[in-house]
Amino acid sequence: MRKILVVAEMGRAGPDDSAFELAAAARAAGKALGEHRVAAAVFGRGVAEAARGLAPWFDDVFVFDDPQLEIPDGEAWRALLALLIARERPLLTLIAHSNHGMDYAPALAGQAGTPLVCDCVALEVRDGRLFAVRSVYGGKLNARVSVALGDAGCMATLRPGAFPAAPAPQGAGAAIHAEAVPAALTPRRRCLGTVAPEPGAVDITQSAVLVAVGRGIEEEENLGIIHSLAEALRADVACSRPVVDKKWLPRSRQVGTSGVTVKPKVYLAIGISGSFQHMGGVKGGPFIAAINKDPAAPIFSVADVGIVGDLFELVPLLEEKVRELKG
Amino acid sequence: MDFELTKAQKDIQKAAREFAKGEFDKELALELEEKHEYPTHIWQRACEEGFIGLHYPEEYGGSGYGAIENALVVEEFCRRDSGIGAALLTADFASENILHFGSEEQKKRYLIPTAEGKAISGGAFTEPDHGSDITTMNTTAVRDGAEWVMNGVKTFITNAGIAHYYIVLCQTVPSAGHKGQSMIVVDASAPGIEIASVGQKMGLRMIPTGEVAFKNVRVPAENLVGKEGRGFYQVLQFFDESRIEIAAQSLGTAQGAFDRALAYVKGRRQFGKRIADFQVTQHKLADMATKLELARLITYKAAWNYDQGRVEPKLSSMAKYYASRAAVEVANEAIQLLGGYGYMTEFEVERFYRDARITEIYEGTTEIQKNTIASALIGK
Amino acid sequence: MEIIVCVKRVPDVAEVEVEVDRSGRALERQDLAYGINEWDNFAIEAAVSLVEAHGGRSTAVTVGGPEDEEVLRRALAMGVNEALHLCDPAFAGADAHGVALLLQRAIAARPFDLVLTGAISSDQRNGQVGGMLAALLGIPQVALATELKVENGRAVVRHEVEGGLERVVELDLPALVSVQTGINEPRYVSVRGIRKVADQAIPVLDAASLGLDAAQAQALLAQVRIEELFLPQRGKGAEMLEGSDEEKVLKLIERLRERGGL
Q: Which residue segment(s) compose the domain that C100 sits in?
């Protein structure tokens, strides 16, 4: 029988949302395949309960519960998944396109000899092929790609949030399999510790209004107009990755999948193109306003209102008008 | 026939573009221009990366490239910012006279620090009574034992006050007209040199332009650059090269103004359409782009020709004449396309226009270029 | 130490409108400026500065057409010691796995301690080549590195994980590290650097020299097919505010006020 394997990531309290998104995507793909089983693989220490929580969505859950897996390490997951895939021979393996997924999925595919399609936002199975839609060229275009679902199987990483989760299917209820974990899983890569970003002076995760600035600001000296606007709006300043890369603002101000997750009421994105890595950190459905000089910037597809123009003109003008209003 | 740049030329063009993108900054440019300040930090960074003096041989701190590579760098710098670009291109201005005519000792003493970002050069040719006509100089240098004693006033001197040395065209045989002229290099620290302002300029505001007066300035005899009595001819030969550089400055400035206008008309909407969708705009853009292409062709050709070792003053003059006019016209149209915004400092094209305007005047006015072209056509 | 750095030439689409060509499967290339993939530029800087600090040799490798040689020259001008150009018409359309396979064939025969790649490329955004190459070479790897040190025959790497956290891992060499932007400050390409390497020959390796039969290469290298490129559905899209700058700003303030941003 055709098998689809889902690699479930764990959050702090049970399975991550992405696990249910992958489950739904796996079921949809399975329908096109006919008779199939959808399995999950779960890794961690003391994850038995979380694994049972996943059971209604799956036909099988393979549980790797071991002290070595306390910290999710990409190379450890790769080693175990390579063994599992060799044994189970799934036709399709679905992985979350998280930072963790990006760490192990390509190496896993390379080791297992299966093609991989990354960062998919839509999937379809037909004519013996997997079709996927992925975002290319800085989000300015989408590509529809396809790969044969052959003997070697196929892997895909799915963008978190792109696939809606679904209720557990009727009648399902997984068989739970406790899997053995060999000793010395990753002798050549060892985890030395985890580093949290230096706490900043301002905790932007608590801010109601954020003025976020990106690459468009061009120079560190130009940040003054952003701080000044934020002050007028009584908002806090956040930023996208390029600003932190240049060390113009601390990491604690970076919003995105590699930064912090914020949930403001209003998000003003200035000179930010709006990649999903950045917008993935903006939660809670805020009102998003964007200023960008590129009319084709992806930010305008997620923003509520947008202005195409020169931020060096617009930001000081906006500040001036806001100050006039507030008196 | 091949219009392709070489690989190295493309690499240099790209490197200059990246450097300018990384280091030049609009707000900084506006500030420097307002304060009339030289972009010292950027100049030093540009030297570190080998952009200044790249046409010097390696033993004098350069990379052994030629006029075409220099033109590509100047173009890219001025395209990103007409003011900073002009300031950088003048950092080694006239030092070519030492490169071509100077002694080994002079080359080591002046070219290496210029390439390393430790010295800025100044060319002192123009005088209050001798602008376009330099066949006679009032500045004199008289031999006194092992020294020259210099007296006179030079005006409209680029880098006056910040240059570390000046290359001065002076009369060493006062009665002999242009055949009695010589070129002397003078350290700016020499006693008796006085700098005075010539007032505010329309453009090029990051670069000081002033009067340099020599009052009994004594310099060693070995500071003579080239041959005694050949100063006038050396300057003319230098103009063949420097006019190509000014053509490149014009080209870059025009391209920068065009880039900004194009971005503007694509982004701005009026009467329910993008400005770029109006045919009147499209025709303006077509004219501008065509002028740019022609300016580029003639500038590159003149530079290439120079690098082939061919002496052809006519071509250098044509390049400078055409490219400078194109720069003024393209920048002017850019202002028109931006309308009211084009007139505002923040939108930059007015600065490009002001910086473009000098290219029709310095290094020989357009009229002088036409004289040169005509005399090559019909003889003197 | 011996460092291999894998690089790619990509179109710069940051501030341009992109169009799909007549095949429907590729970008319209006219008027596009090409250059080094941003992530790879950080990888080059890492390679050059590691060799400066520890001695040894760095080699840049790319898979691409004749025009892609420019990114190798760029790497050389930045201070990489050698370059390899994997170039053959049979490589056209290679997917990430195909590229990794070609790189593996070129690298495996050489001595190396460290392989560096950019975490992703800005064009296809797969982020696959590094991990796949490590697997094919049979060496440990880590992705999304934000800090990289080499000490006592080991690489100590800080890399991005979820929730804004970073993890520090230690890898035995040889290892592969794919680097994030911001890991260092890439130097400029200097004119002196360009001059220095202007005459340096860049060996070209074709299908045969990598032990591949050109006729069969396609099937092996291009398993993932690009069916079409298309403009993304813009969702509901933003309400675009029009008018003069002042009008736009006043409209924005109105909207912000309605939504509690003021």
A: 2-221
Neighbours of A221 (CB within 10 A): 13
By C-alpha distance, which of C86, C260, C240, C114 is closest to C177? C114
Phi, psi of B102 (to 5 degrees): -75, 165
What is the rounded distance in angstroms from the CA atom of residue A100 to the CA atom of residue C163?
11
- Cβ distance C168 to A296 less than 8 Å, yes or no, reads no
Q: Is residue C255 part of a domain?
A: yes
Under an 8 A CB cutoff, do C15 and A294 touch?
yes
Q: How many angstroms separate the Cα of C105 from the Cα of each of B13, C130, C138, C214, C252?
A: 34, 14, 13, 14, 56
CATH architecture of the domain formed by A204-326:
3-Layer(aba) Sandwich (3.40)
Q: Which of B63, B92, B346 to probe the C interface (max C CBs under 10 A)? A: B63
Distance from C-alpha of B361 to C-alpha of A189, rounded to nearest angstrom: 67
pLDDT digits (tens, 9 = 90+) for C126-164: 999 999 999 999 999 999 999 999 998 999 999 999 888
pLDDT in tens, A275-318: 888 998 998 889 999 999 888 888 998 899 999 988 998 999 99
pLDDT digits (tens, 9 = 90+) for B18-54: 999 999 988 899 999 999 999 999 999 999 999 999 9
Beta-carbon contacts of residue B72 (< 8 Å; ≥ 6 apart): B5, B9, B12, B13, B16, B248
For residue B97, give the CATH number of its domain.
1.10.540.10
Is this complex scored with an ipTM above 0.90? yes
Radius of gyration of chain A (CA): 22
What lies within 8 Å, CB to CB, of A254 at 6+ separation is A197, A238, A239, A240, A241, A243, A244, A260, A281, C164
* Nearest residue on chain B to A294, alpha-carbon basis: B267
Domain boundary among B230, B259, B288: B230
Entry pTM: 0.90
Strand pairing report for A141-148 and C225-230: antiparallel
Q: Which residues of B touch A313 (CB under 8 A)?
A: 346
Per-residue tokens: B66: 């030629």
Same domain, C189 and C245: no
C31: left (phi over 0), alpha (psi -120 to 50) or beta: left
CATH of span A2-179 = 3.40.50.620
CA dihedral for B34, B40, B42, B47, sign (positive or negative): positive
